Amino acid sequence: MAHLSDMLEKQRNMIVNQDLPDYDDTLCVDGPALSERKIAIITTAGLHRRDDTVFTPGVGEYRIIPDDTDMNDLIMSHDSTNFDRTGFQQDLNLVFPIERLRELQASGDIGEVASYHYAFMGATPPTAFEAVAKDLAGILKSDNITGVLLAGV
Amino acid sequence: MLYCEFELGRPFGAPNEPEFQKRVLTAALKLLERTDGPILDDFPDGPPGPATNDEGDIEGWSCPVNFGDGIKDVSVEDDPLTALTQEIELMRTWHDLFLEKNKKSTMGISEVDFETCVNYMVAFIDDIDTAPPRTDIPRYQILKLATDEMKAYYFEAGLARPGNATDKELADWYYGETTAGKILLKVNEACANSGDEVLQGMSDRRIIPIHQQHLKQSSPTT
């Protein structure tokens, strides 16, 4: 995570002054223990399978990453040049910790790894995501997902 | 939310550090069991390994071939395509080694072969209206994907070379010392001078990253 103070003025102003929607407070709710939860990953790293369409800047959209995907075949079409990709090039788990999640399932620390994970491309206006995010929330509910790892990049 | 003092692009700390990654992941998932939100917890530790955002120290990194201005008598100013192609060929051994070690590549996002991407970028410098290799997506997008393709190739090749260069060192080398970096500066300049609002927007920081913006001022082409 970056500090605003470390950013160039132009980038800092863009982030501080961006148009953000207002939301009511949402209270945290009780749920099952972590060891009983079914967990999906949602990344903003712009990841997708090689055959998927690349992400389009400014468009609110996501890609599906089935859990049985050959994870070595995931590529990144994120539009930004301003974050490190060498870590991802060496180890997918640095941005999309699928193997770590499976290890937590094997050790009983979580209940289950979801059958589907999801990828967005950050650097997109939040309002552009609203409709698809609501749609995806419904999909997660219907898939009995009880925990989501929101992994920014 | 779990706040981590990690570099952008490295949300779980460091590559090939499974135990550390698992600590971060567990700390984040444990927040699901809390009901006292809103929550903003700090992860207590920085990532293992060398700092990735330190000032580059390229002296510690083996660079067996001088890629500064192309090889033989071909300079990027006189014959950019030949200079770039020669450099890419010289990097191929290292890129092959990366593929051998990692059994994967992050290249391929443009859905166009690498040579075509290279040819297009170089042609774009002289004529922004050069026919793009894909017409099913906007020109700016295939241009951006072509630049990302080249970046992936060089960074993967660089990662295979000895010395464990940090990403900052790799970026300083790629943007500041290679022929590819000089080509990118020229592509960036062509976008800036194009008169096309979208391409001009790209020239802001979507070709040359924020931490390399100083090169735009020091480039003889800008």
In short:
The complex is a heterodimer of chains A (153) and B (222). Chain A has 153 residues and is of the alpha/beta class.
Structure write-up:
The complex is a heterodimer of chains A (153) and B (222). By secondary structure, chain A is an alpha/beta fold. Chain A has four helices and seven strands; from the N terminus they run H-E-E-E-E-H-H-E-E-H-E. Chain A has helices at residues 9-16, 86-90, 98-106, 126-142; strands at residues 38-43, 47-49, 62-66, 74-76, 112-113, 116-120, 147-151. In chain A, the strands form two sheets. In chain A, strands 1, 3, 5, 6 and 7 form a five-stranded mixed sheet that branches. A two-stranded antiparallel ribbon of chain A has the order 2-4. Chain A is globular, with a radius of gyration of 16 Å. The model of chain A has no long low-confidence stretch (mean pLDDT 93). Chain B folds into two domains: 2-42, no CATH class; 60-218, no CATH class. Chain B is 50% helix and 2% strand. Chain B has helices at 18-30, 80-102, 114-126, 139-160, 167-177, 179-192, 197-205, 214-218; strands spanning 2-3, 41-42. Chain B has a two-stranded parallel sheet. In chain B, 42% of the residues are buried. Classes of the chains: A alpha/beta (153), B mainly alpha (222). Chains A and B meet through helix 2, helix 3 and strand 7 of A and helix 1 and helix 4 of B.
Topology diagram in text:
The complex is a heterodimer of chains A (153) and B (222).
Chain A: H1 9-16, E1 38-43, E2 47-49, E3 62-66, E4 74-76, H2 86-90, H3 98-106, E5 112-113, E6 116-120, H4 126-142, E7 147-151
Parallel strand pairs in A: 1-5, 1-6, 1-7
Antiparallel strand pairs in A: 2-4, 3-6
Chain B: E1 2-3, H1 18-30, E2 41-42, H2 80-102, H3 114-126, H4 139-160, H5 167-177, H6 179-192, H7 197-205, H8 214-218
Parallel strand pairs in B: 1-2
Helix pairs in contact in B: 2-3, 2-4, 3-4, 3-6, 5-6, 6-7
